[in-house]
């Protein structure tokens, strides 16, 4: 670690067709931010770059759905994402975007250099083409029937019902999402990156030289290499993206997987004219923070691109995380099953660090993990409030009370004092070791152990009981307590930056120099403290219930959306329809049919006669609800005997897609016997 002069930290570019959610935060942006803040606090030269990934088919689909332009879509979500990161305290040096001119120029130059070196394979293939629109169809613009599960709304790259990866030619009855017509196969020319040519270099670099990578990352890379790498297309037939910068490439753009990682380079260019020292000097340590779905791009494809170019360094580590689930279910943007960062910031003002803490404590570092709102509440109340907040507040308030908010001098140390002080540098060392090895959960646990140490120390020494008889002993206790507090103000900075800043402000500590932490003299005797304030407050049940209700509503909306409306029946003639006598009638009496769950016996006035109808609506309406209601009846239906009761007619109901029945009634009261036409 010490052999590098500087660090370049990249974070996966969020895709600009939706906002950021907690899965993104736990997978990429919180670990990236923790590591960057840690390096900065240590005084290491580091830059952190990120930006919106703004090309690709899903954005063009979103634009069509919203009847707007792709540029309008990415402008909207880039603004939401950038603002959310800033409010949440993610400390990027630059947050750029792949629609910038700098990026277009950088990506074009990168492609052109590989093209001029003869790296690419140029070949023609047959792809689906929409003759009505006059456009080649990207995989996501083709829909058809999945050959595996029969889902008739499968995409050309994946069936979202059964999860199977597909090719467009796998689909039965393919249709274009642009026009609805059946596409035809047509020849088109593309450029391919021959990954197989780089396989020996990648095997040596990853499998031999980077055995220290996380098992989930190393294992996935080995799996890809074991299967044998194949050439991969770097261009697409599309009008949204970076145009392929060669002759005869009209209507073709760089494939988004090729274009997006170059966004790290273009963002660095945008940030500093000295960008090359971060990308081309072997004394720079490049680290990619990503989620597991991006491992192949950052560990195999992008390094192959960089090696093909020839002048760039390769990433030294790619500490990818697994996925975070929500309340036991996979986070899904399309199903609105997510906790969106911008909504959280609005609904929990001033509680950025609560979410940072919970997501770090639950970080899916080596396996998928789960976020629940109950755990969020418990960790806030039982850990942040009861341990960290409680200790800092007691130490500050007691020092204010007994020593007028001035750090007292140590009188004499006993063995317990020495043991307590000896723990501070040990905990700092443990935090550092875990951070250096990208074990953020464990590092946070050790940082909180410092607060636990302080809490236990105060509880055991009970200065409030000792002061009257031995104020010098209390001076020692509170000096040690304030040293722990000041250390928390520094060592919590990577994890809980807003809280660490509040602590440093309370103890009147300028700066956050990591190298000063770990000792027992951060605050000298006589040092003036500022006014104490609470760091955290309890989160009540009703706050959590509101969040759970939001998720319940999202689930209900998804269930309704997934229920298919009953198909139309065969046509009938006007003469057939005119035979039906449909009238307005009034319910005079109603009672349940004994020993049944669904049946009500109704006495109704049709305006022509009074009759009995047995109706299967008891699961949705009580007898009391029905009496006095005007209903629509089919009056000339042949009588039927149901449970020994002659039923003469049928009440017409509306059945919702979820099976619920609703009464069909006139908007205003009309005469009984009025006909429905």
Shape annotation: flat
The strand order across the widest sheet is: 19-18-17-20-23
Give the termini distance in whole angstroms: 83 Å
Q: Radius of gyration from the CA trace? A: 33 Å
Helix content: 40-55%
**Tally of contiguous helical segments:** 20
Mean pLDDT: 93
The helix-and-strand class reads alpha+beta
**Which runs of at least 5 residues are low in confidence (pLDDT < 50)?**
none
Biggest pleated sheet: 5 strands, antiparallel
Kindly estimate the percentage of residues that lie in beta strands according to DSSP.
Answer: 15-25%
What's the count of strands?
25
Explain how this protein is built.
α6 (215-227) packs across α9. The chain is of the alpha+beta class. The N and C termini lie far apart (83 Å). A 5-stranded antiparallel beta sheet has the order 19-18-17-20-23. The mean pLDDT is 93.
In short:
The protein has 677 residues and is α+β, with helices and mostly antiparallel strands. 42% of the residues lie in helices and 17% in strands. It has a five-stranded antiparallel beta sheet. It has a four-stranded parallel beta sheet with strand order 3-2-1-13. A four-stranded antiparallel beta sheet has the order 5-4-9-10, with no helix packed on it.
């Amino acid at each position: 670690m010490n052999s590098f002069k500087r660090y370049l930290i990249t974070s996966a570019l969020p895709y600009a067709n939706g906002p950021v959610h907690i899965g993104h935060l736990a997978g990429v942006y919180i670990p990236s931010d923790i590591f960057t803040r840690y390096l900065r606090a240590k005084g290491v030269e580091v830059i952190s770059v990120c930006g919106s990934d703004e090309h690709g088919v899903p954005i063009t689909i979103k634009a069509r759905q919203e009847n707007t332009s792709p540029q309008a879509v990415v402008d909207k979500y880039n603004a939401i994402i950038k603002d959310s990161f800033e409010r949440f305290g993610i400390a990027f040096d630059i947050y750029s975007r792949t629609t910038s001119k700098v990026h277009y120029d950088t990506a074009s130059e990168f492609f052109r250099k590989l093209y001029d070196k003869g790296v690419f394979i140029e070949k023609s293939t047959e792809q689906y083409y929409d003759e009505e629109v006059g456009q080649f169809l990207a995989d996501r613009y083709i829909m058809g029937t999945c050959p595996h599960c029969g889902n008739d709304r499968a995409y050309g790259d994946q069936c979202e019902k059964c999860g199977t990866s597909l090719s467009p030619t796998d689909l039965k009855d393919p249709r274009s999402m642009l026009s609805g017509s059946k596409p035809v196969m047509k020849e088109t020319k593309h450029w391919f990156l021959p990954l197989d040519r780089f396989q020996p270099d990648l095997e040596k670099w990853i499998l031999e030289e980077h055995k220290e990578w996380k098992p989930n990352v190393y294992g996935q890379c080995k799996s890809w290499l074991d299967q044998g790498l194949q050439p991969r297309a770097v261009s697409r037939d599309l009008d949204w993206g970076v145009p392929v910068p060669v002759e005869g490439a009209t209507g073709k753009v760089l494939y988004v997987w090729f274009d997006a990682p170059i966004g790290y380079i273009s963002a660095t260019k945008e940030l500093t004219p000295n960008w090359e020292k971060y990308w081309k000097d072997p004394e720079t340590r490049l680290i990619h923070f990503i989620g597991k779905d991006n491992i192949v791009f950052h560990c195999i494809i992008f390094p192959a691109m960089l090696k093909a170019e020839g002048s760039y360094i390769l990433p030294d580590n790619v500490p990818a995380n697994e996925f975070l689930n929500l309340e036991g279910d996979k986070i899904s943007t399309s199903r609105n099953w997510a906790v969106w960062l911008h909504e959280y910031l609005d609904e929990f003002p001033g509680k950025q660090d609560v979410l940072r803490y919970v997501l770090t404590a639950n970080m899916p570092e080596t396996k998928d993990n789960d976020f629940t709102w109950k755990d969020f509440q418990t960790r806030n109340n039982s850990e942040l409030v009861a341990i960290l907040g409680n200790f800092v507040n007691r130490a500050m308030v007691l020092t204010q009370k007994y020593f007028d908010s001035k750090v007292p001098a140590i009188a004499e140390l006993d063995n317990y004092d020495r043991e307590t002080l000896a723990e501070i540098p040990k905990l700092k060392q443990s935090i550092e070791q875990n951070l250096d090895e990208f074990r953020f959960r464990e590092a946070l646990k050790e940082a909180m152990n410092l607060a636990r140490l302080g809490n236990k120390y105060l509880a055991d020494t009970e200065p409030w009981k000792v002061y009257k008889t031995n104020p010098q002993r209390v001076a020692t206790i509170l000096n040690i307590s304030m040293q722990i507090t000041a250390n928390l103000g520094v060592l919590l900075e990577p994890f809980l930056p807003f809280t660490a800043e509040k602590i440093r402000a309370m103890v009147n500590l300028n700066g956050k120099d990591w190298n000063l932490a770990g000792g027992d003299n951060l605050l000298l005797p006589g040092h003036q403290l500022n006014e104490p304030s609470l760091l955290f407050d309890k989160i009540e049940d009703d706050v959590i219930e509101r969040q759970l209700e939001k998720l319940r509503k999202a689930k209900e909306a998804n269930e309704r959306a997934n229920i298919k409306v009953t198909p139309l029946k065969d046509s009938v003639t006007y003469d057939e329809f005119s035979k039906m006598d449909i009238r307005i009638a009034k319910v005079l009496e109603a009672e349940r049919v004994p020993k049944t769950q669904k049946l009500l016996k109704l006495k109704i006035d049709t305006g022509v006669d009074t009759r009995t109808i047995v109706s299967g609506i008891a699961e949705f309406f009580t007898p009391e609800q029905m009496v006095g209601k005007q209903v629509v009846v089919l009056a000339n239906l042949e009588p039927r005997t149901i449970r020994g009761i002659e039923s003469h007619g049928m009440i017409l109901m509306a059945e919702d897609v979820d099976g619920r029945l609703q009464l069909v009634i006139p908007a205003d009261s009309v005469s009984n016997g009025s006909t429905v036409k």
